[in-house]
Structure formats: structure tokens, C-alpha cells
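Retry 2 of 3 after timeout on previous attempt. Resubmitting C-alpha cells to design endpoint.
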């Protein structure tokens, strides 16, 4: 599968604090299936798997191709206009976006049954809200996915504490901050997150705590993840 995404962002004010962006994505995909490597429930003879039993599945389609198309809109606000390091504590930043994937609803079936992909709708938002005259900021965020009958809801927030302010003029000291919080994946898990920031670098760690009915088998355990981030400064801005 390959796709190409292009976007254009437009300033909405003379101070260049807010922008509106439109993105378009076009792509092409090819899927293939080897029926020899697939087993079916109809090949169970009551005692075990029997490859000599017919699968009763049509095998006339081994591959198919399809084109795809998506589009999205995003609004961003940054009262520092991108000129100040991410570890400053007097900024207000936000972004909200909406996108639609599989707009053309491509056919998606090895059986040539005419089945099509549902369109996928994505709504998302993040913010960084600093508390004046303090070292504390809040970083809420959410994501919402909807595709056919399936949906995912993912809200949460981090609380961020500034350990050290970066020196604006000498550059001798780099800003540092630590964030902690949690996100809820509705009817599935609670994700506990810690984020460490130093200058333009960030290290994040998170763990999923299973809360669904699956916890009987998983005993509440989930997955551990590590993330690394580097924020590249814009050399065109002072």
C-alpha cells in the first residue's frame, strides 16, 4: 500500500497565532491471499484438523487492487507563534481536526462480492494550557474514530510541571519538564503515561491497564510502550 499526502496551511490572523489547514491523501493498495496457508472451521472433523476436508469457501479470488482517497481539516492556535521552546510555561496551544478516510468506499473482497470499505471518520484535539505565575500546565487531548458499526473513544490529559526554564538569550540552560497523566480507551483500557522533556527532546513511557471483560484472562495486564520525540526549531523565525 502506498499513499501521498499534501497539505496547505493558511494564517488566519496578522499575528500568525492561528492557522487553518486542508490536507488531501490519495493512495493505491494491493491485497493477496494464499489459500493453501489458510485453515477453516469446516475442516475440523470432530477430533482435529483434517486438510482433506473441503473448506466450502470460494477460492476464485486470490488478489485484488483498489484506489483510496482521504481528506482532512485542522485548526491550530499557538500564542508563541512557534518561536519559543516547548518547555516555556506561559503558552497556550491547541489543535482540532476532522478527517474522512476511504471517501470513495473502495471494493474490498477476495470473493468479488461487491463488499466495500466503510468511510472512516476521525475527530481529534490537543491543547497545552499553562497556569500563569506557576510551573504547572495541563495538556488535555482526545481522539474519536468511527467506521461503520465500530468506534473508539480516547480522552485524557497530562499534568505538566516545569522543572527549569530555558535561558532565552544566552542559551546556557535548556528547559526541562515532566508530565504525568492518563487516557481512557473507552470500554477497553486505562493508559498511564509519563513524559520527560529536555530542550527539544522528549522521552515518553506508557502502560495499558486492561479494564474490559478481557481482564479475567489478562488479569488487568496490558502493553508497555516507549516513545521518543525531537522537536525541530524553525530556523526562519527569530
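Retry 2 succeeded. Sequence:
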Amino acid at each position: 500500500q502506498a499513499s501521498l499526502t499534501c497539505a496547505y496551511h493558511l494564517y488566519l490572523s496578522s499575528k500568525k497565532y492561528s492557522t487553518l489547514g486542508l490536507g488531501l491523501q490519495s493512495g493505491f493498495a494491493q491485497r493477496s491471499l494464499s489459500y493453501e496457508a489458510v485453515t477453516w472451521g469446516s475442516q475440523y472433523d470432530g477430533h482435529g484438523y483434517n486438510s482433506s476436508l473441503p473448506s466450502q469457501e470460494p477460492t476464485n479470488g486470490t488478489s485484488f487492487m483498489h484506489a483510496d482517497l482521504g481528506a482532512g481539516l485542522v485548526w491550530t492556535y499557538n500564542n508563541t507563534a512557534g518561536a519559543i521552546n516547548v518547555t516555556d510555561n506561559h503558552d497556550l496551544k491547541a489543535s482540532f481536526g476532522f478527517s474522512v478516510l476511504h471517501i470513495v468506499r473502495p471494493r474490498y473482497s477476495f470473493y468479488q462480492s461487491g463488499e466495500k470499505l466503510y468511510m472512516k471518520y476521525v475527530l481529534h484535539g490537543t491543547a497545552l494550557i499553562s497556569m500563569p505565575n506557576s510551573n504547572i500546565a495541563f495538556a488535555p487531548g482526545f481522539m474519536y474514530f468511527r467506521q461503520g458499526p465500530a468506534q473508539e473513544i480516547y480522552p485524557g490529559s497530562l499534568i505538566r510541571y516545569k522543572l527549569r526554564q530555558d535561558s532565552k538569550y544566552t542559551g546556557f540552560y535548556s528547559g526541562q519538564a515532566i508530565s504525568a497523566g492518563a487516557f481512557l480507551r473507552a470500554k477497553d483500557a486505562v493508559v498511564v503515561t509519563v513524559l520527560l522533556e529536555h530542550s527539544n527532546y522528549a522521552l515518553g513511557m506508557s502502560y495499558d491497564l486492561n479494564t474490559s471483560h478481557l481482564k479475567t484472562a489478562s488479569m488487568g495486564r496490558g502493553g508497555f510502550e516507549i516513545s521518543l520525540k525531537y522537536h525541530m526549531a524553525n530556523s526562519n523565525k527569530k
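Attempt log closed. The mean pLDDT is 88.
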